[in-house]
Amino acid sequence: MGLTKASPASRCADLRSAYHECFNRWFSERFSKGQCDKEECIDEWDKYRACLVEHLEEKHLRSKLMEEHETSLPNGRNDDSLRGFSHQ
């Protein structure tokens, strides 16, 4: 089943593309040449992440994702790899 223009996931598709284009450009033009500017693509990532979080909340999946992530950590280790998806 494909995505339709009205689907929430398609709303994030353009933001995903913008982030990936920015990241790929940064990686090939800067990072691979030893230049590491951590400020590159932050706006694109923040917009894409916000869209994903909104989509997860609409589908009531965000809390489920966080629960699954927390139970998968060994020895109660705190891992903030889903930092952008946690309740803030």
From TrEMBL:
Against InterPro entries, the record matches this protein to: MDM35_apoptosis
Bias regions of kind Basic and acidic residues — which residues? 66-82
**Any idea what this protein is called?**
Uncharacterized protein
**Family per UniProt?**
Belongs to the TRIAP1/MDM35 family.
Give the transmembrane ranges.
none
GO MF assignments: phosphatidic acid transfer activity
| Gene Ontology cellular-component terms listed | cytosol; mitochondrial intermembrane space; nucleus
Q: Which PANTHER family match?
A: TP53-REGULATED INHIBITOR OF APOPTOSIS 1
Top-rank taxon of the source lineage equals: Eukaryota
Task: Output the GO biological process annotations, alphabetical, semicolon-separated.
Answer: phospholipid translocation
**Keyword annotations:** Disulfide bond
User: Region Disordered: what ranges?
Assistant: 66-88
